[in-house]
Amino acid sequence: MPDDLQGPIEAALVVLVPEVEPLVAPFRLEHDPSAVKGVPAHITINYPFLPAIDSDEDLQRELSELFSKAQAFQFTFNHFARFPDVLYLAPEPVAPFKRLIDLVAARFPESPPYEGAFEELIPHLTVAQTQDERILALLERELEALAREYLPLSIRVEQVTRMDNRAGRWHQVSSYPLSGDNKRLGNS
Question: Cα angle vertex 127, ends 24, 18, to 5°?
């Protein structure tokens, strides 16, 4: 039973991106509430992922089978972008992420991404969240200057990770490999 002070148990399906931590970690720790709670740099596939709250072996097997149908892929970070209250790294191309999002949404319609709050989902890696436009603009300039030594950064996605906050902080529960067929073919 969760501690009442902890809050509700939540789960998410994400693509972890440790390669970008050297650039974004200090900014995320100060300006992204999820980083303080233990969530590493990531691109969200589904949050909150409701079936994972009561996870069992059947769910583990189902997610393994589901993600084995998706191809591993390559993407690049080469610029920052913004939502009104968020500064983020924009992955290119976004289509493979959208395919993963759609795959999960089709299989788990009871768990729409972001509880169905957004008509269009834009895959992204959040670096900072604030309603203060001046802070976002300052952070964007600072990150763009630092990014010259890090970006562009090309990354291969080979798995999706399930995380939850059952232990009071977010932690990795399991990872699900994507199909690697296109790795040997050199496709992305």
Answer: 45
Name the strands in the sheet holding 159-164, side by side, starting at the edge strand that comes first in the sequence.
42-46, 11-16, 159-164, 171-177
51-79 pLDDT per residue, tens? 776 667 889 999 999 999 999 999 999 99
| 188: CB partners within 8 A, 6+ apart | 73, 74, 75, 96, 182
Q: Does an H or E element contain 11, and which?
A: strand 11-16
Side chain identity at residue 66, one-letter code: L
Q: 11-168: CATH homologous superfamily?
A: Cyclic phosphodiesterase (3.90.1140.10)
Q: List the domain boundaries for the chain.
A: 11-168
What are 19-37's pLDDT values in tens digits? 999 999 999 999 999 999 9
Choose among 118, 170, 138, 115: nearest CA to 31: 138
pTM of the model: 0.89
